[in-house]
Structures are given as C-alpha cells and as structure tokens.
Design brief:
heterodimer, A: mainly beta, seven-stranded mixed beta sheet, four-stranded antiparallel beta sheet, B: mainly beta
Chain lengths: 108, 121
C-alpha cells in the first residue's frame, strides 16, 4: 500500500493568511492526488484532483501543486469558511486508495 | 441533482449483523464505481472497498477484506455495506462516495451524508 503523510497535523492561522499544507507519498503516484475539505458534521468535499485541477465551484484561492511524491495545497487568502480539516488522497492504483491523516486548520 | 442518500444511524450490540444502504439518484447508476469510506470517531478517512453497479464487481482494501461485504442492486440504484458480526471497533461513520463523474477515476466527487454506527453492549 502507498502511505500518505500530511504535515502539519494542526495549523493555526488568521483570516487573510496564505497557508500551505504538504502531503508526501511513500511512492511516486504520478500526480494522482486529490484534496478534500471536511467541516465538522459533514462529509468530505472534493477540492482538487489530479494534483492541480480545481473541482467545479471551488474558489480559486485554493490551488494544488507537486509531482512524484511531494504535493501541496495552498489557500491564498484564508476566509472564515476555510477553517476545517483537509485530507489528501492518492488514487494511483485502481482500487487501492489511501488518505493522509488530515490537517486541522484552526483560527489563531 | 446528483446525490447519494444513506440510511439512518444505527445502534447495535456486539455480535449482531447489519446492512446499511446508499441510494443514488440524478445520474446513470451503473456507470460509476461506488466506494465505502470509514471514519472512526475523531479520526481520518479509510477506504474500505468499491463496487461497480453494472456487474457488481467488487474490490476491497486488504484491511477490510473478509470483514465486510459490499454489494449493489441496480434495480433500485442502491449499494450496501454489511457486517455479519459487529464488534465495538466497528463504531464509526460510514460514507459512500462516487467515482468522479468526469473521469471515473478513484477520486470521489459525490458523497453520501454518512451513516453513524454505534456498537456497544
């Protein structure tokens, strides 16, 4: 199985800040990486797939980049709605999907 | 509207069996894999397995293979996750989620609302 490691586990930031969350894969995943946002009491919401493709309706302040085993999610200017938990997920091998452990984005 | 609607919360005792459901609407049910994802209390997401409703082909994570059964009934656009003998460690929220509508790759664009399962004696 491919292991996914996110950092940091918790991030404290303020409205308007630029934040970066990192996800590292144990093997090259050829860019097959997605990011999700989960607010308390809700299912995850897809933000980005194939490393950098924004899902429809997702604000452009969210962006993704990376290659090989290192990937990042950037939020350019935090909004109040963005305080949530973020998960990365690799899907490089069909029917063998794994998620990162999550990054909780908190208000400073 | 494309949506997945899951069955309601369950409270069960250890050793009992259970089958929870996920009903799809708003798209061609047989065209996209449906996945099940576990989230234990306060924890992250774990992919459990997937089913292709057209022919009911299933694939499982090694962690969950033999522990649960995933199935689909194309006549009512519904997928299922079932246990034959529950334990307290099955306490979690279970989500169904669809493979992406544009790519049909293993990234999940539509999620059910989740089914909370509590197992205690």
């Amino acid at each position: 199985d491919i292991q996914m490691t996110q950092s940091p586990s918790t991030l404290s930031a303020s409205v308007g800040d630029r934040v970066i969350i990192t996800c590292r894969a144990s093997h090259d995943i050829n860019g097959w990486l997605a990011w999700y946002q989960q607010r308390p009491g809700n299912p995850p919401k897809l933000l980005i797939y194939k490393t950098s493709t924004l899902e429809g309706g997702v604000p452009s302040r969210f962006s993704g980049s990376g290659s090989g085993t290192e990937f990042t999610l950037t939020i350019s200017s935090l909004q109040p709605d963005d305080f949530a938990t973020y998960f990365c997920q690799q899907y490089s091998s069909f029917s063998s999907y794994t998620f990162g452990q999550g990054t909780k984005l908190e208000i400073k | 509207e494309v949506q997945l609607v899951q069955s309601g919360p369950e409270v069960k005792k250890p050793g009992e069996s259970l089958k929870i459901s996920c009903e799809a609407s708003g798209y061609s049910f047989t065209d996209y894999w449906i996945n099940w994802v576990r989230q234990m209390p306060g924890k992250g997401l774990e992919w459990m397995g997937t089913v292709y409703p057209d022919d009911s082909e299933t694939r499982y994570s090694p962690t969950f293979k033999g522990q649960v059964t995933i199935s689909a009934d194309r006549s009512i656009s519904t997928t299922y996750l079932q246990w034959s003998r529950l334990t307290a460690s099955d306490t979690a929220i279970y989500y169904c989620a669809r493979h992406h509508g544009d790519t049909n790759h293993g990234v999940f664009d539509i999620w059910g609302q989740g089914t909370m399962l509590t197992v205690y004696s």
